[in-house]
Amino acid sequence: MCITDSYRPYRVQAALLIRKPGLAAVPGTSNHGWGLAVDLCDGINDYGTPQHEWMVANAAKYGWENPDWAWQGGSRQEPWHWEFQGVSP
Ligand SMILES: [Zn+2]
Which one of 28, 37, 43, 79 is separated from 3 by 20 to 30 angstroms, measured CA to CA? Predict the structure, then answer.
Protein backbone atom coordinates (compact mmCIF):
# COMPACT_ATOMS: atom_id res chain seq x y z
CA MET A 1 0.00 0.00 0.00
CA CYS A 2 1.34 3.45 -0.74
CA ILE A 3 0.20 6.99 -0.03
CA THR A 4 0.06 9.63 -2.77
CA ASP A 5 -1.19 12.43 -0.57
CA SER A 6 -2.11 12.98 3.05
CA TYR A 7 -2.30 16.18 5.09
CA ARG A 8 -2.66 19.13 2.76
CA PRO A 9 -2.34 22.61 4.28
CA TYR A 10 -4.62 25.42 3.08
CA ARG A 11 -2.06 27.05 0.79
CA VAL A 12 -1.43 23.70 -0.92
CA GLN A 13 -5.19 23.14 -1.29
CA ALA A 14 -5.45 26.53 -2.97
CA ALA A 15 -2.57 25.74 -5.31
CA LEU A 16 -4.08 22.36 -6.17
CA LEU A 17 -7.38 23.99 -7.11
CA ILE A 18 -5.53 26.14 -9.65
CA ARG A 19 -3.63 23.14 -11.02
CA LYS A 20 -6.52 20.64 -11.05
CA PRO A 21 -9.76 22.65 -10.96
CA GLY A 22 -11.95 19.66 -11.84
CA LEU A 23 -10.50 17.45 -9.13
CA ALA A 24 -9.54 19.51 -6.11
CA ALA A 25 -12.02 20.47 -3.41
CA VAL A 26 -12.72 24.11 -2.59
CA PRO A 27 -9.89 25.15 -0.22
CA GLY A 28 -10.93 24.75 3.40
CA THR A 29 -13.52 22.06 2.69
CA SER A 30 -11.26 19.05 2.16
CA ASN A 31 -10.70 16.46 4.87
CA HIS A 32 -7.08 16.53 3.74
CA GLY A 33 -6.90 19.87 5.54
CA TRP A 34 -7.90 18.20 8.83
CA GLY A 35 -5.41 15.37 8.48
CA LEU A 36 -8.35 12.95 8.14
CA ALA A 37 -7.96 11.88 4.53
CA VAL A 38 -5.34 10.01 2.54
CA ASP A 39 -5.01 9.26 -1.15
CA LEU A 40 -3.74 5.74 -1.67
CA CYS A 41 -2.00 4.07 -4.59
CA ASP A 42 -0.59 0.65 -5.49
CA GLY A 43 -3.88 -0.67 -6.91
CA ILE A 44 -6.27 0.92 -4.43
CA ASN A 45 -6.47 3.89 -6.78
CA ASP A 46 -8.60 1.90 -9.27
CA TYR A 47 -12.08 0.46 -8.79
CA GLY A 48 -12.36 -3.29 -9.07
CA THR A 49 -8.76 -4.22 -8.33
CA PRO A 50 -8.12 -6.82 -5.59
CA GLN A 51 -6.51 -4.05 -3.53
CA HIS A 52 -9.51 -1.75 -3.86
CA GLU A 53 -11.93 -4.59 -3.16
CA TRP A 54 -9.95 -5.49 -0.04
CA MET A 55 -10.27 -1.90 1.17
CA VAL A 56 -14.01 -1.85 0.47
CA ALA A 57 -14.40 -5.06 2.49
CA ASN A 58 -12.04 -4.28 5.36
CA ALA A 59 -11.27 -0.56 5.76
CA ALA A 60 -14.30 0.14 7.95
CA LYS A 61 -12.97 -2.27 10.59
CA TYR A 62 -10.07 0.11 10.96
CA GLY A 63 -12.19 3.26 10.80
CA TRP A 64 -11.64 4.19 7.16
CA GLU A 65 -14.08 4.70 4.32
CA ASN A 66 -14.16 5.76 0.70
CA PRO A 67 -17.01 8.32 0.99
CA ASP A 68 -20.03 7.77 -1.26
CA TRP A 69 -19.27 10.81 -3.43
CA ALA A 70 -15.98 9.06 -4.31
CA TRP A 71 -17.59 5.75 -5.30
CA GLN A 72 -17.84 4.56 -8.86
CA GLY A 73 -20.79 6.53 -10.23
CA GLY A 74 -20.47 9.07 -7.39
CA SER A 75 -20.37 12.82 -7.90
CA ARG A 76 -16.53 12.85 -7.91
CA GLN A 77 -15.08 9.40 -8.50
CA GLU A 78 -11.93 9.02 -6.40
CA PRO A 79 -11.22 5.37 -5.61
CA TRP A 80 -7.93 6.44 -4.01
CA HIS A 81 -9.49 8.82 -1.46
CA TRP A 82 -10.06 7.37 2.04
CA GLU A 83 -11.24 9.24 5.11
CA PHE A 84 -10.81 8.33 8.75
CA GLN A 85 -14.18 8.07 10.51
CA GLY A 86 -13.02 6.59 13.77
CA VAL A 87 -13.61 3.11 15.10
CA SER A 88 -16.81 2.31 17.01
CA PRO A 89 -16.22 0.55 20.30
ZN1 LIG B 1 -8.12 12.74 -1.46
Answer: 28
Give residue 37 CA to ligand 1 midpoint distance, Å: 6
Q: Global pTM?
A: 0.87
In whole angstroms, what is the distance from residue 8 CA to residue 31 CA? Answer: 9
Rounded mean pLDDT of the chain?
A: 93
Does residue 78 have an active-site annotation?
Answer: yes
The answer to whether residue 69 sits within a structural domain is: yes
Q: Considering 53, 65, 78, 83, which one is annotated as catalytic?
A: 78
How many domains, the chain?
1
CATH code, domain carrying 51:
3.30.1380.10
> Which distant-in-sequence residues (6+ apart) come within 8 Å of 72 by Cβ?
47, 79
Confidence (pLDDT) at 25: 84
CA of 63 to the centre of ligand 1 (A): 16
